[in-house]
Amino acid sequence: MATDKSSRKEPGILVKGYLILYNAAQVLGWSYLLYQIVTFYLSGEYENKKLWDHVKTTVIIFQNAALLEIFHTIFGFVRSGVFLTAMQVYSRVLVVLGVLIAIPASQNSIGVPLALVCWSITEIIRYSFYALGILNAVPYFLLWCRYTFFIVLYPFGVSGELLCMYAAQAYVAEHKNFTIELPNAMNFTFSYQYFLLFNMIGYIPGFPQLYLHMFTQRKKIIGGSSGADRAKKSS
Q: Second label for 209, Cα 20 to 30 Å away, from 62, 175, 183, 218?
């Protein structure tokens, strides 16, 4: 059920301060990750080292920090829906913890640089937008980037995630990682390969819905309004 924005309480100054710091830290973190990726390939390190080994600490810290955003919605710090936020965070955390860390073979997938580059650019824009939005200081250029870059970044980022998952499930199919087979004392079976495949299939209904929603938002926010009105609508 939709809630009138006017009925929502604005977050207090401490919450606003915390959110500004959180979003600013994420901007710095994802900017550093993008810098690491660019320098990794420019320096030629890719010839004898995996990208994941070069950037894993940064990815683990700043991607898993996004788990805080679920609590931001639960406690009413932000206006996003809890379920949608949880699903968006879950998909990324699964790729990091359940695929790239859990199944090292997936680290060799072309999906790794594809996903990480798209994630980095997306998050630099998104967190900058959120931080400046709290201050009511979002420039139109950033607003435009927020509702335009997704057209390319979302499908390529999702493709990268799926390629990582595909590489992981292929390895699990052969080596049975995290898999419980019958017979056993618990009389219980679990296939990690099927778990990964189930999550991959979940992108089929989920991604088009989110992607089309962003197009709807783009039309509503930057389609024909004045700059001030656009910023107000996006807040």
A: 62
User: Can the peptide bond before residue 205 be classed as cis, meaning omega within 30 degrees of 0?
Assistant: no
From the candidates 154, 166, 203, 211, give the one annotated as an active-site residue: 154
pLDDT digits (tens, 9 = 90+) for 43-97: 998 888 999 999 999 999 999 999 999 999 999 999 889 998 999 899 999 999 9
Two tokens, residue 83:
């379920």
Distances in whole angstroms, Cα of residue 226 to Cα of each of 19, 137, 231, 232 = 27, 15, 9, 10
Q: What is the dihedral of CA 186, 190, 94, 65, to 10 degrees?
A: 0
Show the tokens assigned to 24: 């600013």
- 161 catalytic residue (yes or no): yes
Contacts of 222 (CB under 8 A, 6+ apart): 143, 144, 147, 148, 230
Residue 190 bridge partners (DSSP): 180
**Which pTM was predicted?**
0.89
Token pair of 134, please? 């709290």
